[in-house]
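Bug #2210: token dump truncated for Glycosyl hydrolase family 76?
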Amino acid sequence: MVDPAAVPDADAAPAARAEAAADAVVRTFGGRALGLPGTHLARVQAPAPPAAGLRRLVPAGPWHYWWQAHYLEALLDRAERLQAAGRAREAAAALRMSRRLARGIAVRNGLRWTNSFYDDMAWLALATHRLGALGGGAGTPRQLTAALVSAHTPELGGGLWWNRDRNYKNTAATGPAALHFARLGERRRAQELVDWLRGTLQDPKSGLFLDGIRIRGTEPALDRAVYSYNQGPVLGALLELGGSANLAAAADLVEAVAVNLAGPDGVLRSHDGGDGGLFTGILARYLAAAAVDPRLPDGPRTAAADLLHATADALWAGRGSLDGRPVFARHAGRDTDAEQPPGTAVGLSTQLQAWLVFEAAARAAGGGISRRP
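Reproduced locally. Full output below:
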């Protein structure tokens, strides 16, 4: 286990935990894309596997475009947190790294912004729009927004296709796209997407959003899998759109998450490693938005904050060490060294997830939301 003294006051301060996780992820996984100055990218595991030739210049492992989009969001969380704390120089450095990361993503992606998955593109559209809003770039590349518009079709009643095969529409693509369009001011399209999600993929029993719908034979068939991350961008879109109906739906969704996606200890459910290693971190980002939104009643705001604090506490309590830096379990509440014995490779997704949870808990704490006794 990590000596708590290695991170001063981290057990008392959510912001200090977030900074410790940020520093660990950047130092452990970060590097240049293709060795090019002015770029940044994260390798997908540490320690990196041996590589030769040009592969030595690319952060190791397969290309996970959408993981990098959430890395960009985490860096922007860091920049905003530091700016709010009056640490302007460090905030500016985080923003510069964010700009280099956006450039590195395009370089690693073959000098283009798009790929074959509309959910991936929606995540990067959100992150680059936010980067632009913070003064770190030009905003969302038009190719990304155009791709998302093209995926919004009337088949199956609306919603977005998951990928260019166009045989499956899902929450993973439609939720973040709805939020992106809402942030662009395209409120009618965003509301259409939210209404489709609520009418087609929201489970009336649990209140949670199912994974997706496809045509099987001649009939539509639901994929009833439930993942934590699918709830997050829908919550974000409801809050961004506002209005009494959307805000009431947002409050209900927070309650559904608390009832169905957390254990008796209030810790959010995780989805192991790989892609699933990011899922609960994504949900945490939007729970933080709910926790600090004064338009919501105190009940759901406090419930959102409680989920974040309990999950952050559990991740921090079970932390281990990698090269003298904190490393976190795939599942909050487990001991990291038992789950990932020292000397084994650690995946970027789970460490990025922990960082996102700590940033979200810090934002909730900064918004003045106290825990239930």
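Output looks complete on our side. The domain at 14-46+61-366 is CATH 1.50.10.20 (Glycosyltransferase). Marking as cannot-reproduce; reopen if the truncation happens again.
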